[in-house]
Amino acid sequence: MNHPDESAAPALRRLLDLLASGAATEDFADVLADARHRGAPAAVLAEIDDATWQALRVHRTLRQHRRREAELTALFDTAGDLAASRELDTVLQAIVRRARMLLGTDTAYLTLPDEAAGDTYMRVTDGSVSVLFQNLRLSLGDGLGGLVAQTARPYATPDYRTDERFHHTGTIDAGVLDEGLVAIIGVPLLLGGQVIGVLFAADRSARAFSPDEVALLCTLAAHAAIALDTAKSLADTRAALAELNAANELVRAHSAAVQRAEQAHDRLTDLVLRGAEVPDVAAAVAALLGGEIAVLDAEGEPLAGRSVPAAELAGAVAASRAEGRSVRHGEQWVCAVLAGHDTLGTMVLRGRPDLDDADRRLFERASVVTALLLLLRRSVAETENRVRGELVTDLLTAPERDPAGLTARGRRLGVDLARPHLVLVAEPATAATTAATAAATATATATATAGDVTGTATAGGAGRGAGAVADRGRLAGAARRYLFGSRGVSAEHGEAVVLLVPVETGGAQHPENPGDPEEAARQAAERLARLAGFPVTVGAGRPAAGPPALAASYAEGLRCVRALRVLGRAGEGASARALGFLGVLLGDGHDVDGFVGAALGPLLEYDARRGTELVRTLRAYFDCGGSLTRAKDELHVHVNTVVQRLDRVEALLGRDWNHPERSLELQLALRLQLLAGD
What we know:
Number of helices: 24
Structural class: alpha+beta
Largest sheet: 6 strands, antiparallel
Distance between the termini: 157 Å
């Protein structure tokens, strides 16, 4: 039996401790070296050497098992990533990172083909420090990756720079050099025998890759191929679902469009049969289309909905008329309302910039229904207007003969003569009329002052007969269109066209305040000129009720027309009040206060507010024949004071206050004010 100090047992226990602790391989050799140092017998040394060799075998086996366990764990984790269907980039990044970790390389990366560009690109990198390398693009067939893709087999090189098996290019070699790579291994990503990418692992020093490492990298590449295929399948599935959803939405939209078309047909038919008006049709179509509908007449005036500038729609209306369909105009849809070649108006749809075919056809069908309604209303209106025109003629010819009978007759025709009406007298403004001479002014003014309506008409008629080119029939038609949709009535009477507009009538196509003769005459002159195609002169009488008063209002309006002609204002619209001192003479009521206020209003207000004497100074100036010296004596002030006050008068009344015509008007107003005791 050996001495305890000469036994191998301590060394064997130490070897077991090293195995248990997972010590490095170099630590096992130290056990034999220590035994030799202690002078152990040869037999003991041989036993320790044999035990050391066995321990190294066990150590190597354990290390392989641990490595295999780590590889299996990584593969299981990768499979878990695939099963969890996470984002493709996240799965590929995890695979590349695990490849680098398991093979212990400096970097790992994965390339995929770019079918559009015809090359391959770096999809994922791990451990890379070179931007040039990370953005590297490889032509098909170049480099180690090109060889792997062509042969569908893994390839490894201990030193890429000197390996002649690959097709080297300046771009690839520059990227590899910038990254500092030496040893590289690449394995294919196979899917159904087709290479869909390449997985690489690389070191910055020379290295030989073992078959186990190649097999491990191939397994990871297979997982990457599965991830790519799964992503493609999911993308295809999503695309198919999207197409199915789109088809389903298309079917639902078509079904809804058919249903809306049926509802629209029933709704529009019901409206027509019930005698609905244009605003009713517009409201129904707006509800069906989910937008806002506006209907304009041929002149661009609104019949329903909000007003739209006619000039803004002119191009779209012309395009719609030419195509026979609705057209898009910015964020709006425009459809011409046609009756044959005649444009009756325009429909405008807001709030629906994108219309499908079904809704577009519905919008166009609504324009056809609107055209039918407008044609029907125009026909009825023209018939009624002819009958009512006879009433107007009798009213203006002999109003005193049977006022009660005329009122009753009008009520049967839907014209309540007992209610206030505004009387508008319209005449074509011919070239001869516009060029009336100053001599005619005096004659017309004298006859108008005397109230001789017939005489005035005769004097003016001669001038018109010489060179008139306007057609009174066209003006009569324009008047009917102007009153279309209202309760007004028009008729040809003498050489003029007379319009009776109920004072309570509103609507944007007529004056906003029909009770204001001046504004009503101005708007009527503008619109009738557009409708007739030539200038029209309009005179307005004061609002009146009852046959005698309406006849008197007509006479006042006719005198205004004559006055506008002789004043060189043919083609305008005005009332007696708007004609200044001439209007005071022409008007039956002789609105003195209104005339004085219109002429001297700014001076009266200034004197009242500041306690000055501008009106008195102006009167003294005129009474003294425009002499500043005599005026300052009359006013008992310095001449500079008179000059300053007249400067203020000019600032308030305008620079033309001392011109002959304006001066006459101001002197008349001052005289009337004085006579009234103001």
